[in-house]
Write a structure and sequence with these properties.
It is built from 4 helices and 4 strands, in the order ααβαββαβ. The protein is an alpha+beta fold. It is rod-shaped, with a radius of gyration of 31 Å.
Length: 129
């Protein structure tokens, strides 16, 4: 085993410091490019999640079927009934349009009778947690 002299050790340390300072494998600058539609999609998801309350509330299901028809039903419903909350819920393999957020069954049944005129297949539900 060779013993390094003080001068050789000094030059070795100096050269190691020099090379480690010059070589960097990563830069500190990060650039993120995000599609603006992504933020719009997140906001829509947040809005849908906040409108779904699954606790002890009653809802009325006015549609059950495919994605396109559920979107059309939701848009039509919101145009006609502006005071009632409505949302689309996906439950494999069907899309459902749920309406309202009623505290009591009596309140939900009153609204169900009104909605049955326009949506004859509508029925009352109480979603599980």
């Amino acid at each position: 085993m060779t013993i390094l002299t003080k001068t050789k050790l000094f030059y070795l340390t100096l050269s190691l410091l020099f090379f480690t300072q010059k070589s960097r494998s990563q830069e500190e600058k990060v650039t993120l490019h995000q599609d603006p539609k992504f933020e719009q999609l997140l906001n829509e998801k947040r809005k849908i999640n906040s409108s779904i309350t699954i606790n002890d509330r009653y809802k009325i299901q006015v549609f059950n079927g495919d994605s396109e028809n559920s979107k059309k039903t939701l848009i039509d419903f919101k145009k006609e009934y502006k005071t009632l909350d409505a949302t689309i819920v996906f439950s494999t393999p069907q899309y459902k349009v749920w309406v309202g957020n009623f505290k009591t069954r009596i309140e939900a049944e009153k609204n169900l009778e009104l909605l049955k005129k326009r949506y004859p297949n509508a029925f009352l539900i109480k979603p599980n947690k």
